[in-house]
Amino acid sequence: MSRNRMIAAALVGVLATVTLNVAPAHATISGQTASNTATTVTYRYQYTGAPAWRRVYVDTDRNAATGFATAGIGADYLLENGTLYRHAGSGWNWAVVTAVTHTNGGGTASWTVNRADLGETATPNDADLVFQTEAPLDTSARYTHVYSGSGNGGGTVTYQPDTADIANPERGFYHHTGDCDVNDFNLATLQGYRTSQQTTLVMCVFYLAAFKNAPISAAALAQFQQQADTVRAAGLKMILRFAYTTSTSGDDAPLSRVLSHLDQLAPYLSANSDVIHVMQAGFIGAWGEWWYTQNFGNEGNVTQADWANRKAVVDKLLSVLPANRMVQLRTPKFKRTMYGTGALTPGQAYNGTALARLGHHNDCFLASPDDLGTYENIAVEYPYLAAETQFVPMGGETCQPNPPRSQCPTALQELGQFHWNYLNADYRAEVLNGWTSGGCMTSVRRNLGHRFTLTQGTYPATATAGGSLAVQFTVQNAGWAAPFNPRGLTLVLRNTATGAVHSRALSADPRRWAAGTSTTVNQSVSLAGVPSGSYRLLLSLPDPRPGLATRPEYAIRLANTNVWEPSTGYNDLLHSVVVR
């Protein structure tokens, strides 16, 4: 349907009456901002296409029951192209207030308006906004602007949650489409995972079958490097495992060969640790899952010598993998046998020890009462795993239908209980399809790993050049897990006139933002070197690795409306401060 604009040309001083036939939404609007001085307010957004009409609806009293009702607000004023209108009652009925400064070009629309013309002089110190273009018609979600420089010395911003499935790094569903040693990753395919499916992880199971009795060849090492390079170029990360066989005969390699191969792999693991999300212990047995094995205790018949050899593999792997990356073991029994039965405590988390770096993966999730041998004693292992996975990685795949255990109620319960970070999107289809038909797949997609949502922030209106700036904001982790890899946290001040950026590291650690909890960050940062001017406040959660720190696809997007900047990887705190 089209939206027809019927203009009553004879009206003088009143905006033309229109009839609205709403068209389907088009994703044309992005990058909405609002900032102000003591006397003016500036609104800006980006758009695609060539809309004839560019609008901002302004709800100055933040009362949805008054003014023109649109997108959840009651607009008291309307900016349409170069004119400011005041709502005159009775639906679409607007009276001209004045002409305003309006620029439009290069996909950006901007207005600067006298605050007095909006009837706004810092009371109530905020306004709700809705941005719109036509045609085609696109209407944004509500955006709250808290005025800086107001009489009360600051403002509180209440943020709106976003329920969308978000392509955030280091979490969510992953794709496993072939053996990594022979099936090349395709750059366009990997990029499509991220842009079309909100998927940021792939599995790389790299088989060393040809090298059970020989060093890894230069060609095989080059193949691994090529795969890592493609993953990096696509903006994804990989779950990594090495193995020697897919046969249940368990024809793997002896300990001495495994250790020598890990020495060969050491520089490659170090050079590519930026795109290694987590590494599974692998190497031993069929598929690297430690059950069918000719060299380390077959089918659960594991001697003390076999346990010592298994531990030697894990210790070696931990020594060659950079200390900021973790390793997963196939069952809780493996870690409890080799490294002690006590669960990791908050005080031990992230301290670099083997205990703090060893997580868990379950590759037969919900397949039987004990997940086909994943558990031996759930009365002991369930509470152990629930405690451990607050701080170490948990992930895996389903492997066979097993209703009712494999259906939505138990799936949601255990995914949350054990803080699942990732899950195979390709296997097993019958189980995953059951979650879709059962109505829980949306929750699974949204809640795997971290999901940080701003709830409220309090910021000053002004600050003194060379002094400090105090900020306070609260973040809720609505996901099932916290990040387990290091993650940056930075307050960004961006000059609203020049675009110059000044970054200040915050001391809070997002790995401590536990699932299902809210955390308040309250910190003062130095303004040394920040010139006088008006600054937009933004929050960045970048990947700390140097090669990825400035890449937006590796930064965490907060699950809020109107905050994400895809071009920078920043989250807009929806507040500006004037440095004097």
Strand order of the largest sheet: 15-16-17-18-19-20-21-22
Q: Note the main sheet.
A: 8 strands, parallel, barrel
Spatial extent as radius of gyration: 28 Å
* Content of β-strand: 25-35%
Terminal-residue CA separation: 52 Å
By secondary-structure content and strand pairing, the structural class works out as alpha/beta
Assembly state: single chain
Put simply, the count of helices is 10
Judging from the principal axes of the Cα atoms, what is the shape? elongated
Helix content: 10-25%
Runs with pLDDT <50, length 5+?
Answer: 1-27
Q: How many runs of DSSP E, i.e. beta strands?
A: 31
Q: For the residues shown, what is the average pLDDT?
A: 91
Structural account:
- It is a single chain.
- This protein is α/β, with parallel strands linked by helices and 580 residues long.
- It contains ten helices and 31 strands.
- An eight-stranded parallel barrel has the order 15-16-17-18-19-20-21-22, surrounded by four helices. Strands 3, 6, 7, 8, 11, 12 and 13 form a seven-stranded antiparallel sheet that branches. Strands 24, 26, 27, 29, 30 and 31 form a six-stranded mixed sheet that branches.
- Helix 3 packs parallel to helix 4.
- The two termini are 52 Å apart.
- Residues 1-27 have low confidence and may be disordered.
